Amino acid sequence: xxxxxxxxxxxxxxxxxxxxxxxxxxxxxxxxxxxxxxxxxxxxxxxxxxxxxxxxxxxxxxxxxxxxxxxxxxxxxxxxxxxxxxxxxxxxxxxxxxxxxxxxxxxxxxxxxxxxxxxxxxxxxxxxxxxxxxxxxxxxxxxxxxxxxxxxxxxxxxxxxxxxxxxxxxxxxxxxxxxxxxxxxxxxxxxxxxxxxxxxxxxxxxxxxxxxxxxxxxxxxxxxxxxxxxxxxxxxxxxxxxxxxxxxxxxxxxxxxxxxxxxxxxxxxxxxxxxxxxxxxxxxxxxxxxxxxxxxxxxxxxxxxxxxxxxxxxxxxxxxxxxxxxxxxxxxxxxxxxxxxxxxxxxxxxxxxxxxxxxxxxxxxxxxxxxxxxxxxxxxxxxxxxxxxxxxxxxxxxxxxxxxxxxxxxxxxxxxxxxxxxxxxxxxxxxxxxxxxxxxxxxxxxxxxxxxxxxxxxxxxxxxxxxxxxxxxxxxxxxxxxxxxxxxxxxxxxxxxxxxxxxxxxxxxxxxxxxxxxxxxxxxxxxxxxxxxxxxxxxxxxxxxxxxxxxxxxxxxxxxxxxxxxxxxxxxxxxxxxxxxxxxxxxxxxxxxxxxxxxxxxxxxxxxxxxxxxxxxxxxxxxxxxxxxxxxxxxxxxxxxxxxxxxxxxxxxxxxxxxxxxxxxxxxxxxxxxxxxxxxxxxxxxxxxxxxxxxxxxxxxxxxxxxxxxxxxxxxxxxxxxxxxxxxxxxxxxxxx
Length: 737
Description:
Blueprint: E1 7-9, H1 12-23, E2 26-30, H2 39-51, E3 56-61, H3 73-87, H4 94-100, E4 108-112, H5 124-129, H6 138-144, E5 149-156, E6 165-167, H7 175-187, E7 193-198, E8 210-212, E9 218-220, H8 239-249, E10 257-260, H9 264-278, H10 280-289, H11 292-295, H12 298-302, E11 313-318, H13 321-328, H14 340-347, H15 357-365, H16 375-383, E12 392-394, E13 397-399, E14 405-407, H17 413-422, E15 434-438, H18 443-450, H19 454-458, E16 460-462, H20 465-468, H21 479-485, E17 489-494, E18 497-499, E19 504-505, H22 521-530, E20 535-539, E21 543-546, E22 549-552, E23 554-555, E24 570-573, E25 576-579, H23 585-594, H24 598-610, H25 629-636, H26 656-671, H27 675-686, H28 696-701, H29 710-726, E26 731-732, E27 735-736
Helix pairs in contact: 1-2, 3-26, 6-7, 8-9, 8-25, 9-10, 9-13, 14-21, 23-24, 26-29, 27-29
């Protein structure tokens, strides 16, 4: 067992000394995914390993967040001021930066089970050390790697009336389950060390996320060196993203359950759900313009078009910032309770959240309480808020206050009258509107979490990913409870590509390289098939630009898949909804072709016919062949006056100047993605000039207003060329110049 738990230090190096004393110099360090990494401790341990080659350090984690640097000189010029503004006061994860630059020392290895998308495609070391696992198997696989030190960023309890307690806050996802396993390993004779690093900027959450400080061996607490939390900036939501989000919002069932992932597609869904709830006329105008109900019948059975009267319950491995917006707008309000029979009574409408005499009768008829009431019945009713806290069972009677006690028989008229007057609670207690496993997002999101009212905070339970991501029994709730809570589940995730036979490509490429990781996607897809009324929704843009050319993301086949075809369900692009569940292969092929970009429909159909999956005489209906970006633009304007679908519906971290420059640089990057394109772009840029000084402010922002040397002069011309490409093309007679 541990020699002494909960020992506080104010110096990270002292923590490292203590850890080495406990476990020696062969250290396998487990760190949480994303935000919950203890940066001060991790940096001190990594620096110690760099200085002492006798230390063998293996870091096992996922999603090591870094401020963007940029690869080209233009990207560096663009990102420099932005990075300083957003991340200037946040210490970097030193090991992650060295991984990024291929500078890890020989005695340090880093293995991750989830990458920031595309960040390590060309990093051979990280590709070799990647651990492929479902999120629900991550604890098992971390233990298999031999983790003997665990580090975690924690929120201290003293500011929240909980001295001696800590909160996992952003990352109870894996740590809640790995802590007891490490203690078992310790009892079996393997030295371990659990390290908590406190940070007062980290929002506090109770429920499952709250633990006693003594569960940790070493606690780093030095308020003066607390640092702001790593911020993931808001990204632009494109017109295609918005329409995908709109279609997804039509599949949300009032009174249902929502899981959604990170990124612009998730933001688009949340935004459209808010429009559906608050501006239903505008939402319905787009709905009717697209003829969603007629074109995609799945919406009639599984979706909805009215505001959310009952509201939604969130159950998502990642609590994205969108859930806070849904909470603020009164959409995330369906509360679930930690009792399956009670929850099922609510689901069936036999019980409301307001206690009443009729509710007592329902509970009695369901066998949840007896009559006459016993002590355990009264305790149960008090715990769930049906009776007030001061009510107790004493001497065979129900004591309502110091002066009044009544018989425990619910059929007694006097008892019923007294209970109604003095004992019934105001609302059922213990309701949770959001179960989340981890969170990361913009600083605005963290501030909103810190500013939650006590009542709002109490409706959020940060918990184990193994409770959230599948239906198996867990110490926080068994399968029966989970199925009762997760009615009308909509599990919405994104994919990179989708094959015509129904396979999703979400995490890797055909050559074996890993783009990101499986994470929890497989878990949610599989769970949607197990839950009555549940649906898996995979969203993807119909096209992407690759090598300077537009290509389809719906493809005939691909040499890698994340979700196999036997788990095909609902797929959404900006061109509609493909309901694939239970369909024949021919219908699956055709429904996917129907929501593909029209530039690629004929070739996809030809491949399908050649494979014998579609009848040879089938022809594309005329209304299928209108899947164009112009159709998307028209649909988003159908809501009427005003910008219903802005690029940044929840605010932005980039300035207007930076957004314009970013768009120009993105265009340049696409244009120079091939050797021929690079030469052509440079040739055109050499002729570009800004004689009237229209771009002075933008060039100044890039540090190129007064260039010196060939590289800076070329960069200046490239920026001017990129900005000129954004200008509207001028009409000259019948031709466009």
